[in-house]
Design a protein that fits this description.
It is a single chain. The chain is an alpha+beta fold and 236 residues long. The protein is built from five helices and seven strands; from the N terminus they run ααβαββαββαββ. The longest helix has 51 residues. The mean pLDDT is 78.
C-alpha cells in the first residue's frame, strides 16, 4: 500500500510540473510571436515602399528603418536563446576568480560612447569575485541595457560596487511600484509611456544567471529611482 501511495504522489507531482512547464511554454510562445510580429510588419511595409520609391533620400530612410528592425529582431532572438540556455539543467558554470573592477570597466567602454545617459561608476570594494565571466558579462549587459531603455531622458545611470554588493540605479518616473515583484517574469514590461523597444526578457536572463551562481538579488524603487542589486561572494 505504501508503495502505491508513493507512486501516486510522484505521479501527481510530475503531472503538476509538466502542466506548469506547458503553461510557461505556451505563454513564452505567445510572447515571442507578439515580439516578432511588430518588426516583421514594419520590415514588410518599408520593403514594399522601397520597391516603388524613386527618391534617393526616402530610399535610404526606408533601408535604415529595415536595418534597425532587423537588428532588433536579431537582438531579441539572441536574448531568447540566452534565456533558454540559462534555464537548461545541462548548463554548467565555468567559474574563475578575478578582479571585478577592470571587468566592469571593460564592459562600460562600449556604453560610454553610445549611450545618451551619463554613466557614473563608483567602486569601493577590495573583494574579488568568483563567477562565470561570460555569464556575468551577460548579466551586466542586460542590467545596463535595461537601465538605458527605461531611464528618464537626460538622467544618469549609477553603477555602484560597495563591498560585495553591486547595484545599478536609474530614474524611471513611469514605473509603477506595484509591478516590482513582476520585473523578473519573462516578457513583462513595467514602464508606461516608453517609446523604446525592449525584449522583456533581459531581467529573466539576469535572474536565471544569478540563481545559478547562488547570488542573492533584488529590485528596489524609491523616490522615482529603480535599483537592481546582487550580492556576490567575497573571497577576501
Amino acid at each position: 500500500m505504501a508503495v502505491v501511495i508513493t507512486v501516486e504522489i510522484f505521479s501527481w507531482k510530475d503531472f503538476k510540473r509538466r502542466t506548469a512547464q506547458e503553461e510557461t511554454r505556451l505563454e513564452m510562445t505567445n510572447a515571442i510571436a507578439h515580439n516578432l510580429k511588430t518588426p516583421l510588419f514594419v520590415i514588410g511595409g518599408f520593403a514594399e515602399n522601397l520597391k516603388n520609391e524613386e527618391d534617393t533620400e526616402k530610399k535610404l530612410h526606408n533601408i535604415e528603418i529595415i536595418q534597425q528592425q532587423t537588428e532588433e529582431m536579431d537582438s531579441l532572438i539572441h536574448r531568447m536563446l540566452d534565456l533558454s540556455r540559462f534555464d537548461s539543467p545541462a548548463l554548467k558554470l565555468n567559474c574563475e576568480v578575478f578582479d571585478f573592477k577592470p571587468f566592469i570597466e571593460k564592459i562600460l567602454e562600449n556604453y560610454y560612447v553610445h549611450t545618451e545617459h551619463e554613466i557614473i561608476f563608483i567602486y569601493n570594494s577590495k573583494a574579488k569575485i568568483k563567477a562565470d565571466p561570460a555569464m556575468l558579462k551577460t548579466v551586466l549587459e542586460n542590467l545596463i541595457d535595461n537601465a538605458e531603455k527605461y531611464s528618464d531622458y537626460g538622467s544618469d545611470i549609477t553603477i555602484n560596487v560597495l563591498d560585495d554588493v553591486l547595484s545599478i540605479s536609474n530614474q524611471c518616473s513611469s514605473f509603477d511600484r506595484e509591478n516590482l515583484s513582476k520585473l523578473w517574469q519573462p516578457y513583462f514590461r513595467a514602464a508606461k509611456g516608453d517609446n523604446k523597444s525592449g525584449s522583456g526578457i533581459g531581467l529573466s536572463i539576469v535572474k536565471s544567471a544569478l540563481e545559478m551562481h547562488g547570488f542573492k538579488y533584488k529590485a528596489e524603487f524609491e523616490n522615482g529611482i529603480i535599483t537592481f542589486k546582487f550580492r556576490f561572494t567575497s573571497l577576501d
